Amino acid sequence: MLIERAAGKRIDPKNGEIYHTTFDWPNESSIQNRLVIPEKYTEEDLFQRLMNYNRHIEGIIDCFKATTKKINVDQPKGDVFNQILDYVSRPARSQAPITPRILLIGPYGSGRRTQASALAKKYDIVNVSTSSLIKEAIANETVLGLAIKPHFQRRSAIPDSLIVPLLIERLGKLDCISRGWVLHGFPRNRDQAEALERNGFAPNRVFFMDIPPDSIMERVTLRYLDPITGERYHMLFNPPPTQEIRDRLTQKANDNEANIRTRINVFYNNVRHMIDYYENIGIHVNADQDPNTVFESIESGIVNPIPKSYEENS
Question: Is 284 helix (H, G, I), strand (E, B) or coil?
């Protein structure tokens, strides 16, 4: 079939248009008369090219087996095109666990938000930020939002009786159920972890983002925000390009050394209990690295099988 197709191929030397003696022959005799056989299209040339193709194709397919689809091209061009278009238009199949439910647990400044955003983008899962949920509920003046608002304004801890229902409501929506989610900012202690599981939203991957306190201080105390553009800068890793921008930068009121050390201490007092609770599925990641390296470590933990001990207890 390939030899037959190739043998009938003709080219118009005037404009480069391609025709075929059987499938696509021009109606005008002037065009027919000037068509030529392309170079290196003899039966021997085609046979050599076909041998070379068959010699390498299996290795190529093996490299791209996760995204490969075989299509029968021995049919009309329109049908071939439609099958290809249908395949490339579908969302890519994720390599993540079926309905991934991922927790990122780490201290303030460990990079949870950055990693959650990257995971959500790559695996098409829902990025569930506890702080964003709280702000949305307050802005929309929902029942829970109105109850949370006084605690938020006083910067005091929000009771589990308010934060858990808010979170459960979000995780129970169709997009989270069908696509999966990555959650950060919750749980912050063992009681919250138990509440999550008690309500039917147990994670199947938990990543503890380990980073020394001194590295957190360096990250957080040196980061600033441009109030005009919204651009974030870090005086060490991503300094502002001009003095004009540097002069107008602002820093979050809470990003002072005393407050950060308090938050770090609270986190480490609670995290050891969560490490015990998630001992079968908890994966420790060195978060004191550049974001791309951290992401690769997390991704490795996602695509690998769930630990056997967890499967046995499920």
Answer: strand
Please give the Cα distance from 154 to 24 (Å, whole number): 76
The band of 201, judged by pLDDT with boundaries at 50, 70 and 90, is very high
Q: Are 216 and 230 in contact (CB under 8 A)?
A: no
DSSP H helix total and E strand total for the chain:
15, 9
Do residues 174 and 180 lie in contact, with contact meaning Cβ atoms separated by under 8 Å?
Answer: no
Contact 107, 216 (CB under 8 A): yes
Give the mean pLDDT of the chain.
Answer: 86
The beta strand positions in the chain, using DSSP E, are 9-11, 18-20, 101-105, 126-129, 181-184, 205-210, 223-225, 232-234, 282-286
Least confident of 34-48, 116-130, 180-194, 257-271: 34-48
Quick check: bond before 241 cis, omega within 30? Answer: no
Tokens, residue 173:
């929506």
CA 246 vs. chain centroid, Å, equals 32
Provide mean pLDDT across the span 282-309.
Answer: 84
DSSP codes joined into one string, 13-77: TTT--EEETTTB--S-HHHHHH-BPPTT-SHHHHHHHHHHHHHHHHHHHHHTGGG------SS-H
pTM, 2 dp: 0.64
Pairing of strands 101-105, 181-184: parallel
Residues 120 and 299 sit within 8 Å (Cβ to Cβ): no
| Nearest one of 158, 196, 157, 190 to 176, comparing CA atoms | 196
> DSSP secondary-structure letter at 250?
B
CA–CA separation, 220 vs 223, rounded Å?
A: 5
